[in-house]
């Protein structure tokens, strides 16, 4: 047990993955769904007012009546709105609870429970969306896999629309450690537990990980959540080798003109003709 303590309390290697279930954990997924659905939180999903602005902008970018694949769709906050605008929408998410909720609220959209890194589509969609920084939470190898699969899934001329966080988001981020006693349970467990939390920075403060070690009656559990800060140049260099042309750069996924001063960055990328 002491060896496990020493291992878990060390700074993780860059891009190290934890192995505890997260999206489908019976307790954690309840808290995640609650965060998704709270209209006033910028937590698992953005606030409803932002989502409405975002969908309105997306509907002006994606061809009318087109086929859309929304990756990491959660409980269907974007997909339901887009289906209501007569798009043919498919949502993919790795949370059974979120997919079940989405299906209960939206009969128009096709919802699929799957890790979006495992999708296999060929020239089916006019647009693929990946919203709220999901791309930046992936490891470099996972990002390559994703971009390849998205390119394959798109029809010629199809659009890949995503947003990420910029270095502005990291300006005040520092390495830190803290702990909390959760006597009545909390986000990570319904049972009493101690949450040991740490933030570590890498790659000249452009990559960060939030590490959570949960100490409870069932032992120790570790969760690692990564994030990467992007510039226009860095994101362009990552996607260009896979056959995408950057068609538009914006401050956010609501289409705000690019200033370089925002803490988010949105790309519209186009798959070339084949």
From TrEMBL:
Record's keyword terms, sorted: Transferase
SUPFAM superfamilies xrefs: S-adenosyl-L-methionine-dependent methyltransferases
GO molecular function: transferase activity
Top-level taxonomic group: Bacteria
InterPro entries (UniProt xref): Methyltransf_25 (IPR041698), SAM-dependent_MTases_sf (IPR029063)
Residue ranges occupied by any Methyltransferase domain in the UniProt entry: 68-158
Name the record gives this protein: Methyltransferase domain-containing protein
Organism, as annotated: Paenibacillus riograndensis
């Amino acid at each position: 047990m002491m060896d496990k303590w020493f291992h878990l309390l060390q700074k993780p290697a860059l891009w190290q993955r934890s192995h505890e279930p997260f999206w489908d954990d019976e307790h954690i997924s309840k808290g995640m769904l609650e965060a998704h659905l709270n209209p006033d939180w910028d937590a698992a999903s953005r606030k409803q007012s932002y989502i409405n602005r975002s969908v309105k902008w997306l509907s002006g970018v994606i061809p009318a009546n087109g086929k859309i694949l929304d990756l990491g769709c959660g409980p269907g906050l974007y997909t339901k709105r887009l289906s209501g605008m007569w798009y043919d929408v498919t949502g993919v998410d790795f949370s059974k609870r979120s997919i079940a909720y989405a299906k209960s609220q939206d009969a128009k959209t096709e919802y699929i429970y799957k890790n979006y890194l495992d999708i296999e589509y060929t020239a089916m969609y006019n647009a693929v969306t990946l919203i709220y920084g999901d791309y930046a939470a992936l490891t470099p190898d996972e990002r390559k896999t994703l971009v390849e699969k998205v390119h394959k899934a798109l029809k010629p001329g199809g659009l890949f629309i995503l947003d990420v966080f910029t270095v502005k988001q990291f300006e005040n981020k520092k390495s830190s450690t803290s702990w909390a006693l959760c006597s009545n349970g909390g986000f990570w467990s319904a049972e009493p537990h101690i949450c040991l939390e740490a933030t570590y920075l890498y790659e000249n403060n452009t990559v960060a990980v939030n590490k959570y070690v949960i100490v409870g009656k069932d032992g120790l559990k570790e969760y690692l959540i990564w994030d990467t800060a992007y510039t226009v140049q860095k994101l362009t260099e990552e996607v260009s080798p896979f056959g995408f042309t950057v068609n538009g750069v914006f401050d956010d996924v609501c289409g705000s003109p690019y200033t370089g001063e925002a803490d988010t960055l949105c790309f519209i990328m186009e798959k070339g003709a084949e």
